[in-house]
Amino acid sequence: MIRALLAALALMMAAPVWADDSMPPAPWAYRQLPDPAQEAKAKALMETLRCLVCQSQSIADSDASIAGDMRSQVRERIAAGEDPEAIRAWLIQRYGDYVSYEPRVSAATWPLFAAPLLLVALAAFLLRKRFTSGTETEA
Amino acid sequence: MLPEIGLGLLWLAAALAGLQLLAGGLSLSANGGGMAGIVRPVAIVQGILAAAALGILIWLFVQTDLSVKLVAENSHSAKPLMYKIAGTWGNHEGSMLLWVTVMGLGGAFVAAVERRLPEPTMMATLAGQAFVSLGFYAFLLFASNPFARLYPAPEDGNGLNPLLQDPGLAFHPPTLYLGYVGLSIAFSFAIGALITRQVGPDFARAMRPWVLGAWIFLTVGITAGSYWAYYVLGWGGWWFWDPVENASLMPWLAATALLHSCSVLAARNALRAWTVMLGVVAFSMSMVGTFLVRSGILTSVHAFAVDPRRGGFILALLAIYIGGALLLFALRAATVTEGERFAIISREGALVFNNVMLSSILGITLIGTLYPLFTEAMGTKVSVGPPYFTPVSAMFAVPMFVVLLFGPMLRWRRDKFSRVSGVLALPLVVALIAGGWAFGAGVRHVLPLLGLALGPALVVASVLPLRGRSVLRAPLSLWGMVIAHAGIGVALFGMASDSAFTVEKLVAAKVGEVQQVGPWSIRLAEVAPIAGPNWTAMEGVLKARYDGGAEVTLRPQSRTFWAPLQTNAVSALKGRWNGQLYTVLGDETVSDKGESRWQLRLWWKPYVPLIWIGGLLVALGGGLALLSRVAQDLKRRLARAKGGHRRDEVAALVKTDAAKGDAA
């Protein structure tokens, strides 16, 4: 009895694997969504997601199979009406910050966003210094 | 035997670089004047020896000498000759050898032709060049020996990455390296001028042609690299802010700023310290870029640990050169006064604005490229990509382009905005029309809209400095500036068009089916096998019509190389005046019913080729400016030679007269 149960359990657990085998692995890897607006949304998101096995490529322009899987997932979720940023957050939760080319402001990344502001301030300071004393002559 | 001779030549070249440094340095001391005579010849021979070593390595690749480790790891006997040659620099060691060769030849060229600089500055410059070269020789000889042997020799080599088996490889790296390393000359000039404290208009005029030359090669190299990435990767991306791309962009940004500040220094004797600083920064960026790319650190920090000797070497060299140069700058900057003053509304004012903006973009690119390394060392992996770089650099680029609309029309020293505001109406109207047209065409994103509006305005504005002049009698250097600035506008329009107008179609097509992408209708006529020298392929035959016009044929392939085994898509492109059709053939899928379909990727990319046409225009403008500088220099030399000759004649006459007088 217990052996039969175990066998049934094993079958149940194995079942999804069979199902995966008979399904095309990533139906939307190389197919566009029928709705152009949704496709544009998906495309914009895919261009900012990193292909995890490639050398600096987005999933939108990679032939790697994991990139294809991720494209397919992104398109499916967009088609289901999910918000692109929610999908990004889901992917980050799954793969870490590394997957997104769009850095978020966080404890680790704030200097990235402070830098441009600092540069603007520095540029303004340099230009001001250069020109406010412009009347004096000097050799 | 040959590899050992190559290695010997490298050691000799390194020794000569040491001698060049020593002799150049000694000649600056009070009683070392006797050494000055040998510096130039030594520099020339050093360049020739390095080139000979590279020649030997190329020969080993052509022969596919598998007893050489580098050849066995990166080449294959069945590879076409062109890729055997170009494959020489398609790897770490070979590309470093190409680097020292270009650097040696650059130094040799300077030693042979540069006669403008005061002799002490020249000696300091050549010594500086030798100092930098020495580090690279050491890196090659101790950590990246290209001539290392392999025993036993394998049956055949591993082959070259198929993506690199493209004419782009023969052209792109050497061009880029000429640019990178050309900046070493500006670096050495800056060091030389700092040591002898001679920074002034003469220094700027002497340095300018070298910077221009390097900058032209960089521009061509980046443009070619961008087009290469666009067609070879099969996805139509032309710029991704990839660390490797940034590594080439950063020296270009610094060189562009340097070029502009050089012209201020040459014309007005202002921005002295700033120009010297940029000379140091430009080549530092080349070194940072090349080393980071070459060490593999940019793809992963762990590559650093794979060969700790290489990583350590790189860090040490960077610290010595960049740190040393900056230290020298800090020590001497106080003695190099800033020079002449000027008002904010003036040609100098506009150029300073350009410099500050370019430097800011450079700063952003540097921070964005290095930051992921920093966080990875701290334990978190982040990615910084286009969503960061594009808007942040636009923040600085857009104001710069706006100033470019009128900056070249301003007068030196002091001007009134009201003098140019009238003329400015024309580009502004053009910007409004172009922006309105783009908005009407459905473009809603801010940056593409700005690019589409500013691009044409820049083209129109760039021509305005020619107004009121006879077009034929305008100086060549002015034409150079006009064409280069117009090129920026053209390229900007192309870049904006890519994100604004590109139409994409991904489809699994049956043979005979017609697809529609933008105005094109494309029929997959057949798919047939085809073979090349070291690959086999499936080739799709696409019959395309633009808007019902004449039929054109495109033949994209899916190529399988067997050494190393890898399948690549080879795109087929068809250009028109208003854009480019981009086609890629993917895999075959067969359904349960045995129905075969081919994966096709089709893009219609309106105006996108303008990106590279613009880039080439920028380089062409630089070329014209360089031509005019060189022509001026030759004229001056000729005049001086003629003058000298005449003085000699007069002196001879006077002498004979005097002799006659004596005789009488």
From TrEMBL, chain A:
Gene3D superfamilies: Cytochrome C biogenesis protein (1.10.8.640). Keywords: Cytochrome c-type biogenesis, Heme, Iron, Membrane, Metal-binding, Signal, Transmembrane, Transmembrane helix. The chain crosses the membrane at residues 108-127. One of its GO terms (molecular function) is metal ion binding. One of its GO terms (cellular component) is plasma membrane. Residues 29-130 form the CcmH/CycL/Ccl2/NrfF N-terminal domain. Residues 1-19 form the signal peptide. The keyword Transmembrane helix applies. Pfam families: CcmH. GO terms for biological process: cytochrome complex assembly. Belongs to the CcmH/CycL/Ccl2/NrfF family. Possible subunit of a heme lyase. This is Cytochrome c-type biogenesis protein.
TrEMBL record, chain B:
Residues 315-629 form the Cytochrome c-type biogenesis protein CcmF C-terminal domain. The chain crosses the membrane at residues 6-30, 42-62, 96-113, 125-144, 177-197, 209-229, 249-267, 274-293, 313-331, 352-373, 388-410, 422-440, 446-464, 476-496, 607-627. Belongs to the CcmF/CycK/Ccl1/NrfE/CcsA family. The keyword Cell membrane applies. It is found in: Cell inner membrane. The lineage of its organism: Bacteria, Pseudomonadati, Pseudomonadota, Alphaproteobacteria, Sphingomonadales. Required for the biogenesis of c-type cytochromes. Possible subunit of a heme lyase. It holds the Pfam family CcmF_C. GO terms for cellular component: plasma membrane. It is a multi-pass membrane protein. It comes from Novosphingobium sediminicola. Keywords: Cell inner membrane, Cell membrane, Cytochrome c-type biogenesis, Membrane, Transmembrane, Transmembrane helix. GO terms for biological process: cytochrome complex assembly. Residues 89-295 form the Cytochrome c assembly protein domain. This is Cytochrome c-type biogenesis protein CcmF. One of its GO terms (molecular function) is heme binding. It comes from the Bacteria. The keyword Transmembrane applies.
